[in-house]
Structures are given as C-alpha cells and as structure tokens.
C-alpha cells in the first residue's frame, strides 16, 4: 500500500503554506496527497447558540479551499481529502501512522498550527510514529525554493541516527541536491573520563577527530545506498541548535531527530529540535528514532 503525504489544515495561512509544500513533496516523491481537517462536534453544556450544520459546512469549506489550491498549482496530482471526526492531536497522530510524512503549518518564532508549546502542535511532533514536517507561512518563495541543499543533524551512533539519515538522504536524492551532514559536540563532563575513553580519544588524535570519525561511520552505509547524493560533512563544537541553524541558513530542508520514547512527565521533542522549529527559515522535518 502506497503511503501518502498527509497535510493537516485548519484554514489558516500557515496550514495553506503547508498544503503548498506537501503538494510539492508529493509530486517529487510520486506519492498521493491526503488533506485532513480535524473537526469534532462537541455540544456545550452552557447556554450558547450552536449550529452543527453551519460548523460542519465551515469545516468542509476548509477542505475545499485546500483542494482548490492544489488543483490550481499541481494538475495531475492524486489528491484526497476528508474531515477527521476527532480531536486535532488524535486525528493527526493517527494519520501519521499511515503516511510517508505528515506536514503541519508553523508561523515560526511562535506557534505551530497556531499553538506550539504546551498544546497540540508539540504533542503531534512528540508522539507521531513517523516524520513530521513543520512548514512556515512566511517567505513562500524561499520555502518552495529547490535551490538550497538538505541539512541533517546527526547525533549519537550510526544505529541511533539511521532513521534520520535515511530520511535526509532520500529527501536529497529526490531533489537532486547535495546533503550537508552536521554533527555538533561539546566537551564531556569530567566524571565521564576513564582510561578507556582517554585511550580512544588518543587513538583518534583528539576529541574533534573522534567526532568526525563518528559522523563518517554513521554516513558510510547511506553513502553506499545513495551514491549519487553529494555529501559534505560539518563537525563543530557548540550548541546543536545553534550549529544547525547556522548551517541551514540557506537550506531548503532541515532534518533533525527526536528519540521515540516518552519522557517521565509528558512528551518532549529535544532541545535541538525545539530550537530549529522556532527559528529555522526553511521547513523542518522531525524524524523519530530509537
């Protein structure tokens, strides 16, 4: 079964920007596009006049606007649309399970789908089982530009970052653009030093060469799988969020990972993903990994 590119819409300029990007992505990947609007009739227990038919018609109008936008710009693209009778988080997380990727709109420097921290945008990103792409409403020409490269943040071991690198290599391959792999590092705390770790650092010629070796090892199997993708490597000491933002200044897509496990309290997306979701000018793909 072919998994579609899914985009969540709510009628806002942010979600329409996500529709544009998702349609472009579906066309690039040769996948269908599925447009979803979450709407659930919830009668109130207070004396407020409600009109179910009017509200449902408003929900359908949101879908019609998105479908018309795609039809005008992408003739021939296989498009489906539906109202999901559920809350926003439940509907979008459910759609993510059946999609190649899920797209949401973001205002940048603020809210995702109108809400980010502490609300459903963050919950979707933190709990979705597949990649979620955050697309900004600003600078349409920039976000739809295909001239920049794809930037990916690599952390941990080759196994830790396999899903993230796989998504990034595929994104670069379908676009025919270079991939910039970035690994940020910091000095380890003193209590983690041991004779074994010191010997490993010494063998590598220092901390930074050790980090470069880790990045090269993580990239090796993906270079073999995608031989046509030109790859550049960047290793830098510093905050992962800031290093990624600097390297992605002219990128067309930034790919970061988040651990696919729940925190003891609530859900989290990680500091680096949090930083780039707020401040990156290009679309940001957040990919869960083990």
Automatic annotation (TrEMBL):
Stretches assigned to the UspA domain: 1-136, 150-288
One Pfam family named in its UniProt record: Usp
InterPro entries, per database record: Rossmann-like_a/b/a_fold, Universal_stress_UspA, UspA
Family affiliation: Belongs to the universal stress protein A family.
PANTHER family the record matches: STRESS RESPONSE PROTEIN NHAX (PTHR46268), UNIVERSAL STRESS PROTEIN UP12 (PTHR46268:SF6)
Protein name, UniProt field: Universal stress protein
